[in-house]
Each structure stands twice: as structure tokens, then as C-alpha cells.
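Reviewers of the previous submission asked for a worked example of the structure-prediction workflow described in the proposal, so we include one complete record here. The input consisted solely of the amino acid sequence. No template or homolog information was supplied to the procedure at any stage.
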Amino acid sequence: MRIGTGAARFGGRRWNHDHPPHPARRARRGHLGVNFLAIDLGLRDTPPLVLVALRFAAVAVPLVFIVPKPDVPWRTILALGGFMSLGQFAFVFTAMHLGLPTGLAPVVLQSQMIFTIAIAAMVLHERPTRVQLAGAAVGLAGLVVVGVGRMDGAGIAALLPLALCLAGALSWGIGNVVARSAPPSNGLGLVVWSALVVPLPALAASLVVDGPAAVGEAFTTLGWETLVSVAYTAGAASLVGYSIWNALLSRYPAADVVPFTLLVPPVGLASAWLVLGEAPNALELAGSALLVAGVAVPTLVDLRRRRRRGIRSPITPAVERSG
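From that input alone, the workflow returned the following C-alpha cells.
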């Protein structure tokens, strides 16, 4: 399948066409890093916005007829679907299509921590600690280093996929604050019902960006790569991962929840390196380490403080109950 010339122009793909964490909890957090391999697989066969539409159609149907609507206003469901699902993944899938390495995408997405803490401070008046602010500054420095690394030998055009991924992280951050401000509700219900918001706008955008012929061809030539990608990303990532994520954000401060994606970047980098042979350059690796450190430091400091005071982290039991 051949769609446009954007991938060639930007060096991207061509269509062709307190307690030590339990291993099960580590696996639940880590599988989101492997999720990007599944996205890469689907992008080999299907335009990015069509792939987004298929993913969330699979999330919503048939569960929307089984899972009760969550007890939240429709505006919350629409906002979650628009920002945490449609906005985030439309930008990220497009960034990966235009050449953002599969292993680097989950690292750049960790900037959602910076956006979430900043937006939560402005909108929800959740004041970040000095350690959280320091971590955000380190993470921001890491993003700058990653950007310089992306330009090494590729020029300024390589920054477009990075910018799109950052837009996805911003959209995720807005969605986090929406979820945090919503009344406590069933996480699975939020994921399923908010998924209804995604397919039609994503398809409409694809019709504009890729053209009706490309969209039609995508549906008539669906390959096994797309089917496997949709099955994994809809099931493991959306229905399981984001059900837990939304449930936590509806109950605990955003700054306490968002650092618990620490395993996603190293798993994403390592899996893309091993499976796809995507070896980051020295600057990309250094910037990634800085970004992950900026997320990790506030988490580790908070865990140490809680351990000294004999306070168990509120996140741990919540994740256990969600398994």
C-alpha cells in the first residue's frame, strides 16, 4: 500500500506497501513499552489515523453494550476521549509514521509528567513539591538533548516527528487532569465509553490527510499485521492498562500517579533495540536517561519519605486491587 510522500520526506516508514514491586505489577507497567512494537507492526500496513480509529473501535465494540456508562458527566467522557485517546494517539502514531523511532516514542511520551504536573497545578491547584519541580526540570533538559540528538545528521526536519510526539504527550497530560478532576468511577467504563469519541474523528482526519482512496485501500487490504496490532493495543494497552490508569487518577493526586510509568521507556527502548535493531545514538540515549531520571527521582524520594514515616504508598494497593 502506498500513501503519500510524507514518510519518505521525513525519513519515516513507507507503506508496503515502599515494598519491592511484585513481578506481576512490573509486567503490567512494562507491557506498555512493548505496546509500541505492536503499533510499529500495524503502521507497516495501515495509515496512522486509520490505525487509531480501528484500535478504539475495537475497544468500544462490543463492550459499550455490556459495560454500564460510568457515573460521570458526558463532558468528562468526551474530554477523556478527545485528549487521552484521540489527541494522544493521533499525534504519536503520526510521529512514528514520519520517522520517530519506535524505542524513542515511549521515552518522549514521558514528558506527559511535566505537562500533567504543570496543568494540575494551574487547574486543580495541586501544588508540586520542590523535588517534583526539580525532576520536571531534569526531564525537560533530557528532552532538549533528545532533540539535539534527533537533528544529528538528519537536520531540522527530524524535529517534526519529535514535536508531534510532544503534542501527544501534552494531550495525554490534559487527559490526566480531566481524569483526576472527575469523580471516582469505574476505570473500565471510562475507557470503553470514551473510546466511542475516537473512531469517526480519526477517520475524518485520515480522509483529509491521506485521501479517500488511501483510506478505502486500508480497509480492503487489511493484513495480519494490522489485526495483531489492533488486538494487542486495544486489549492489553487500552482495556487493561488505561482502565487501571484512569481508576488511579480519579482517586489520587496526579503528581503521585504519573511517575508510575517508569518501566515503559526502558522496556520500549530495549525491545525496539532487540527486535527492530533500532540503536539510539549517544545523544538520544543520554537525553532519554535524563528524561527517565527526571521522572524517577520524585518517585524514589517520595517512596523513601513514606518508608521513613511508615506510610505505604497509596498507588500500590490500588494497582493490586485492579489486577
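Residues 1-31, 312-323 have pLDDT under 50 and may be disordered. We consider this example representative of the routine output the project will generate in years two and three.
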